[in-house]
Amino acid sequence: MSPPTADAPSSASLHELRRIVPYYRRYRWRYVVGGLALIGAVLLRISVPYLLGSTVDRLRAAANDNAAAESLGLTATDVGQLAFMGGLGILVVALLGAVVRTISRLQVLGTSRRAVHDLRQSLMQHLLTLSPSFYARQATGGLMSRAVNDVQFVQSLMGPVFLYLAETGALYVVALSFMLNISPSLTAVAILPFPFFLWRARRMAAVIQRESRAAQEGLAQISQKVEESLSGAMVIRSLALEDFDLGRFQTHADAYRDRNLQVAKARARLGSGMSMLGSISVLIMLAVGGPMVVDGKITLGNFLSMTLYLQMLAAPTGVLGFVMSSLQRGAAALGRVGELFDEKATLFDPAPEKQKQHADGPSAGAIRVTNLSMTLQNRHGQERQVLDDVSFAIEPGELVGVVGPTGSGKSVLLQALARQIEVERNQIAVDNTDVLDYPLAALRGSIGYVPQEGFLFSAPLAENIALGQPDASDEQIREALRASQLEQDLDQLPQGTATVVGERGLNLSGGQRQRAALARVMLMQPQILLLDDPFSAVDAHTTDAILSGLRPYFDGRTSLLVAHRVATVQHADRILVLDSGRLVEQGTHEELIAKNGLYASLDRRQQEQAERAHDVDHPETEAE
Ligand SMILES: Nc1ncnc2c1ncn2[C@@H]1O[C@H](COP(=O)(O)OP(=O)(O)OP(=O)(O)O)[C@@H](O)[C@H]1O
Ligand SMILES: [Mg+2]
Fold it and tell me: Is 410 in the pocket of ligand 1 (CB under 6 A)?
C-alpha cells in the first residue's frame, strides 16, 4: 500500500499509540461508557435472532402437539398471543438496541473528536516553538500534510476505526458463542468461507483506498490547473495558447475520471463479493443444517437463529477490510505526527532563576555582537556560512544603518538579533546580558522587528497594525499610520482601516505591506528597532517622507536599519557594511566615502543609476 502522504511512513506500528495516550486519558470514562454501551448494543442485537428462534420453536411446539402445548401452559387461543408477544419482544429489544448503539457512537466518536482537537492544538503550539532552521529543512507542503491529514487519520483511528473494530469484534465473539452453543460442528462448517472473504475484502479495500487517494490527488491537480489557467489567462490569450491549455486541462480531467471509474468498479466488486458471502452461508446452512433439522439434531428455531447470525456476521466483514487498512494508515500517520512532537524546540527560555532575574527584558538597548559566525543548512542539507566572525557594539539610542550587496547576510544578522534563529552563548549581549539569559517573550517584547517580507493576516488593517498592542486606541493607530505614510493610501481602501487585508482580503501592494509592518512596530514602542529593508518596495520620495516621520521615533531607541539604497542610511550615526557575511567596513557616511571602499563604490553605482533613471524619465532636459 502506498503511503498516504508524500512522506514515507517511518514506523507503522501501533505502539506509537503511547504518544497519543495522554490526549485520550482525560476522556477515558467516556470511552468506558462508550465501550459498555457498545457491548450492550451487540448483546441486544444478538438477542433478536435468539428471540425469533425460540418463538418459532414454541409456536411449532404449540402447533404440532397440543399436549406439548398444554405442558408449556398454552391453550389454543394463546398461540396467537404467543406470536404477538414474541414479535413485541423483538421490537422492544431492537429499539433498545438502537438507543444503546447511538449512545456508544456518540461517546466514542464524540470523544475522538474532542481528543483530536486537543492533539491538533498542542501540535500547533509545538510547531510554533520550532525554529526557522527546522522550517528551512522541511517542505511546507509536507508539514501541512502532517498537521492536517495525518491528524485526521489519527482521529479516524481513535474514532470510527476503534468503534468498528470493537463492535465487530464483540459481534463475532457473542454471535459465535451463541452459534457454538447450538451446534459446534455446524458453526465450524458455516464459517469456513469467512477467512477467504475477509482476505478478499482487505485486498479490495486497499485497492479502493489507493484509487480514491489517487483520485483526490487528481482533483487537486485539476483545481491547481484551473487556478493557473485563470490567473494566467492574460498570458494564455496573448500567446493564443487556448487550445494548448485546454488540452492540458483535458489530460488532468481524463485521468480524474478514470480514477473515479476504478474506484466505482472496485466498490461494486467488493459489494457483490460480500453479498456472495451471505448467500454462500445460507447455502451451507441449507445443505448441512437442513438435514440436521430433519434428523432432529437441532430445532427449526435454532436453525433460523444461526442463519440470521451468519447474515449478521457477513455484512461487516467487507467493512472490516477497510478498517484493517485504515488501522495501518492510522498507525503510520501516528508515527509521523509523533516525529513532529519529537522535534525539539531549539529556541527556548533559560532556566527559571535566570528568567526571574531578567524578567523585564532589556531596558536601555545596548547591543554587543562578538565573533558572530553562523552556518545555515538549506532544505537539501547543504551548509553555508552566512555570517563570518562579525563583531560590533551599538550604544543605547544609536541609529545604525546596515548595507551590503544582496545575499551578504543582512537579514540573517537581524534575525539573529531578534532571536528568530539560534545563536550560541557569548555571541550577542543586550544591556550586558547574554540574549540567551532573557526570557524569549521579554526579549522579543522590547524588540520591534520588521522582517523583510511584510506579512499581513487576513484581518482588518487596524487589527493587523495593533497586533503587538491590542489595546491601542484608534488615535494611536492613526498616528502610527501617519508616521509610516500609510495614511495617504487609506482612501484607496474601501473601508479605510476596517478593510480586511491579507490573503483573503484586499491585496495591498508590496510598499503598502511594508508601511503597515512599520506602523505595527511604531505602535509597539519597543526599546530596540530592527528594520529589515522596510523601504525596498517604496519609491525614493516616499522613503524620505517615511524617514522624516520616523526620525522622532528613532530618538531614544536603539535602531538598526537595513537598506539596499545607500541614500536611505546616509544620515545614520554609523553604517555597517556587510560583504559575503563579513563586516568589512563601518563608520559614518563621510568616513566611509573617504575610505573609498565597498560602501563608496555602492554609493557611486547607485548615484549613476539614479541619474540614468532621471535621464530616461526626463529626456527633455537632455535635449535642451
Ligand atoms: N535559512 C537559511 N538556510 C540557508 N541559507 C540561508 C538561510 N537564510 C539565508 N540564507 C543564505 O544566507 C545568505 C545571506 O542571506 P540574507 O537573507 O541575510 O541576505 P541579505 O543580505 O539580507 O540579502 P538581500 O539584500 O537580498 O535581502 C544568502 O546566501 C542566503 O541564501
Ligand atoms: Mg535581506
Answer: yes
- Residue 571 sits at φ, ψ, to 5 deg, of -95, 5
Q: Is the CB of 525 under 6 A from ligand 1?
A: no
Averaged pLDDT, 578-592? 95
* CB 136 near ligand 1, within 6 Å: yes
Positive or negative torsion for Cα 280, 282, 285, 290: negative
406 Cα to the center of ligand 2, angstroms: 7
What CA–CA distance (Å, rounded) separates 313 from 307?
10
Whether 534 lines ligand 1, by a CB cut-off of 6 Å, is no
How far, in Å, CA of 305 to CA of 316, rounded? 18
For residue 386, the CA-to-ligand 1 centroid distance in Å is: 7
Residue 447 host element (H or E): strand 447-450
> Residue 557, SS3?
coil
pTM for the predicted model, two decimal places: 0.69
Confidence class of residue 138 from pLDDT cuts 50, 70 and 90? confident
Cell numbers given for 508: 495591498
Q: Which of 270, 290, 320, 326 is nearest to 157 (CA)?
A: 326
Please write the tens of the pLDDT for every residue from 254-277. Answer: 999 998 898 889 888 888 888 888
Summarize pLDDT for 372-402 with one digit per residue, the tens. 999 987 777 788 899 999 999 999 999 999 9
Among candidate residues 508, 558, 512, the one with its CA nearest the CA of residue 535: 512
